[in-house]
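Lab notebook page, bench 4
Experiment: in silico fold of construct C2
Operator: M.H.
Input chain length: 251 residues
Purpose: comparison with the prior construct
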Amino acid sequence: MDFTQSGFPDGVSAPNPKSCKPTCYNYNYITVQSFAPLGTSIITITGTAEGGLKKTKTYKLKIQDTPPPTSPDPTTPSSSSTKYSCNETNWTCEEDPNGTTWDICEANCIEGPPPPPPPAPKCKIFDFNINEKTNKDSDPLRVWVDASLKGYFSVNYVCTSCTVTSVPSDGNENWTGAKGTYASLPSSGNVTEPFKINTAGTYSYTLECIGTDPEDIVTNTLFLQTVEALNLPWWQEIIPVLRGFLGGIWR
C-alpha cells in the first residue's frame, strides 16, 4: 500500500510514509521551519492499495511557539495515565480503559464524510416463458404452428416498460411488434399475452425492459432462445374431421 499526505501549511513538510504491505504500521516524520504559521491544520493522508482502492484519514497538526500551559486546560484531561477513545456519535474523546492517549484521540477523532447512499434498485426480470415453459424445460421448446399460445413475463416494480422481439419475426398474430410493446406495465409486473406463430421455423425471443433510470436496461435472451414451431401432423388435422364424418354415417 502506498501513502501520500496533503494539507501542510507553508514551512511544514513531510516525506510520504514508506509503502508497506497490510497489516503494517508506519512512521510519519514532519519538519517545521521557524517561519511556519501558528495554528492548527487538517492533514489528509491517503492510502492506495493495489487495484486503485483508496482510503483517506485526517489528523490535526498544531503549531505553537510556546510550550503548553502548566495549568490544565479545563477542556483537556490532566492525567496522562487516563486512556480515551473516540465517541463517533458526537465526535468527542471519552475515557476508555482500552483507549489511547488524549493527544492521539483528539488528533484522530474527526468526523468523516457521510456514507454514500445505497445503490438504487435495478429493473429485474423474474420469468419469461411460453405456455409456462422455457428452454430450461426443453431445448428447443417445441410448439405447433397456428396453435393458441400463452406468452408470459414477470418483472419487478422498478421496470417501467418492456418489449418482446423475435428473430425472425413470428408471424401476423405474433408476440412481437406492436403487440409485444408494453409502454406501461401493471403494478403486479406480470404480463400474459395470447398469440400464435403462423409459420414453421426456429425463433429466438428476447425480452428487453427499462427501469426508472433510462440507462437501466435489462434483457433476457436465454429463457426462449430456441423456440421451434412445427406444422401439425396430417393425421391430427384429419382425425377431427373424420370423427364428424363417421358420426354422420352411423346416424
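Observations: Residues 128 and 153 are 4 Å apart (CA to CA). The chain has a mean pLDDT of 84.
Next step: discuss at group meeting.
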